[in-house]
Amino acid sequence: MILTAEKVTKSYSDKILLNEVSFYVNEGNKIGIIGINGAGKTTLLRILAQSEVPDSGTLTRQAGVRIGYLPQSPVLAADQTVLEQVLLGATAEQRELQEYEAKTILTKLGITAFDQKISELSGGQRKRVAMAGVLSTPCEALILDEPTNHLDNDMIAWLETYLMRYTGAIVMVTHDRYFLDRVVSKIVEIDKGNLYTYDANYSKYVELKALREEMEQGTERKRRSILRTELEWIRRGPRARGTKSKSRIERFEELSEKTGAGATQKLSLSSVSSRLGKKTIELEGISKGFGQRVCIKHFDHVVARDARIGIVGENGCGKSTLLNIISGRLAPDTGSVIRGDTVRVGYFAQECEHMDASLRVIDYIKGFAEYIVTTDGRLSASQMLEKFLFPPDLQWNTIGRLSGGERRRLFLLSILMQAPNVLLLDEPTNDLDIDTLVVLEEYLENFDGIVLTVSHDRYFLDKVVDVIFEFQAGGTIKQYLGAYSAYMTARTADATGQEPEAPKQASVKKRSDGDNQKVRFSFKEQREYEAIDDEIAQLEQKQRTLEEEMQKQASNYEKLEQLMAQKEMLDQGLAEKTERWFYLQALAEKIAEQGAN
User: Fold this and answer.
1) Residue-wise pLDDT tens digits, 387-405
2) Predicted structure pTM score
3) Beta bridge partners of 194
4) CB of 59 within 8 A of CB of 49?
5) Separation of alpha carbons 388 and 533, rounded Å
6) What's the rounded Cα separation, in Å, for the pair 218 and 304?
7) Which residue, of 114, 209, 334, 547, has the greatest Cβ tally within 10 A?
8) Closest Cα partner for 448 from 426, 417, 419, 470?
9) Distance separating alpha carbons of residues 193 and 21, to the nearest angstrom
C-alpha cells in the first residue's frame, strides 16, 4: 500500500463532498474515479496529491513514493520555454537522462516547438506540456485529472497504450469510457459524499452498479413494508401495551429515522426541437485559411435533415472553424453557406459563453425561456433544471458557486431551452460527467433534427454519429460512412492498401466434391441436433439461477466478482452452443428441402 486516505471529510460551505471516506492505493493499481459533476472527484485528487488539505482525516504516503500530479487546469511559468517547463526541477544529471524521453512524449502529444514560450501556447497546448512533464518524470504513482481533454483521437490512442504499459499506480478522473474500459482495473464512484469501490473496468462496473442499486431498492422496499406494519400497530392505541411493546415502538422510531437508499436521481431529457423545413444547410465550395495555413479547401456538402455527423482530425486542423462557418459566426474566404429559412442553430461551444457569476441559476435559465414544450408536456425553467440535476436549493445558488462541470451542464441546458433544430456540438464530452453523457446520447438519438459534433470521445462518436468527416492535410475533408469504429477500420484499410474485411457469414459446409450429391447429417450431428434444444434450455436456466444469486450477493463485491467470472464463461458457452444450433438448423432445413424436391 503506497497511499492511504483515512476517514477524510471535505466540504464547501454547506455542501459535503467527502464524508469520512477512506481510499487506498496499492502498487500497480489503476483506478478510475467517476461521479456526477460537482460530486468531489477533483477535490479527492487534490487531497491525494496533497495540494489541498481535508477538513478532517489523515493522509499517509509510503516513504520514498514519488507522485506525478496533472491538475485539470495546470498553472505554468509563462516565461519558460516548453522544454524548460517539462524539465523543471530536474538536476543537470536528471535533465540529461530525461530530455530524450521528454521530447519523444511532447512529439506524441503534438508539441514540436520545444523552444516556444509557454505564454504563446493555447490552453490545450499548456495541458499537454504539463502532461509531458508528469509522464517524463520518474515516479511510483500518477494522479491525472481529465488527461484526455484537449487531445485528438490519435493522441488518446497513444496515451491509452502508454498508461496500459505503465508499471506504477494510476489514479485518474476521466469521462472517456473506452479509456476507462481499457486502462483501469478498479472503479471508485463518488456519490453523495460516499465512495463505492468496484474491482472492475467500466463495462463490468456498469453491471455491478446495476446490481447494487437493485439490491438497495429491494432493501428499501422491505424497510417500507416493515414500517407500514409497525405504523399500523402503533395506531391501534395503548390497549395491552406493556414493557415488551416498548421494543416495537423503538423499532418503529429506528426505521423512521433511516432515510433508505431511495431511487437514484437520474438526468432525464425530453427531445426538444423546432420544425425543420426541406431546405437545410448547403456548403458550396467553401475554403478558409489563416495566414499560410489552409484549414478547409473547396468543400461541398448538402446536410441531410436527419444527419448525424462526427468531425475528427488533428488539433488545430480546422474542426471548430467548420462549425463556426456553418453557424454563421465566421465567414469563409471563398464559397458560400446557404441556410434554409427554418434552420435554427444551437451551438454548444468548446468554451462556455460568459455567465454572470452573481446571477442565480434559475434566473440565468429564465433569461432564455420561462417555459418549454417537451414530449413530457409544458415544463417550466425550474422543472427543466431539476431534470438536469439542479435541485431547488441549487437553483437559487449563484453561478459563481458552481463547479466547472456544473456550469458546462447549465450551458448545455441554456442551448436546448431555445429548441434548436440544428445542433453544433464542439467537444461536448469535455467536463460533462458520464451520467450526463449517457442521457445526452439518448437525447440525440431521439432528436428530430441535425447533429454535427466535433469530439475526441470514441465511445460518444460510436453511439451518436453515422458519418465521419476527417480533416486531412491541405484542408481536404474526407467522408467515411459509419460510426467511429467503422471509420477506424476503413482508415486502417486505406493506410495498408487493403480492402476492409467483410463480415463473416454463417454457411452450411458442402458434404461432397460434387454439386449434385445430397447433404445429410452425420451420425454424430444427428444426435447433437436432437439434444441441442434441451442443452440450450439447461444453460439458460443456469444463467437465470446465477443472475438470481448475483442479486443476493450485490453487496459482497468479492463474491460478486467470482459470480461475474462464472457468468462470463456461461455466456460464452451459450453463445457457442447457439451458433452451433444455427448451423445444425440450417443443415436440417437444407435436408428437408432436398426431401421435398
Assistant:
1) 777 888 888 888 888 877 7
2) 0.69
3) 191
4) no
5) 48
6) 47
7) 209
8) 419
9) 8
